[in-house]
Write a structure and sequence with these properties.
mainly alpha; 91% helix; DUF842_euk
Amino acid sequence: MERLLLEINDEIESKCRKIGGIVEDKHKLMIAKSYKCMSRCFDVGYSLDESYKCAKICKKSLKEAHFMIQSKVDEAQENIRGCIEDCVDVFGEMATNENVKCFHECKIDALKLLKEAKIRSRIWIGK
């Protein structure tokens, strides 16, 4: 039973790392664009106060995209944790067919959430 849970956990962690890898390059590009946006705020002849407000807007879009992606990954991790706890509460800790089936359903649900996070990351960060 413990081995099964470790395998499920490893698969979920692997998917999280893959999402991280997909997002990382685009995130770096978005950071570069954000810095370029901020530097333009100070080059266009705005007052210092206007430049600060402009730069704040540039930074905000980056923070929002990062928050949205992290929220989806956290949701998937919390979901599988709660789902597995529910399986144990209902079917006990023994490796019964029902319990194993329940764990696999938890894994499938978590993988769907991670896939959604991957798709949304492309939207939030840009294609």
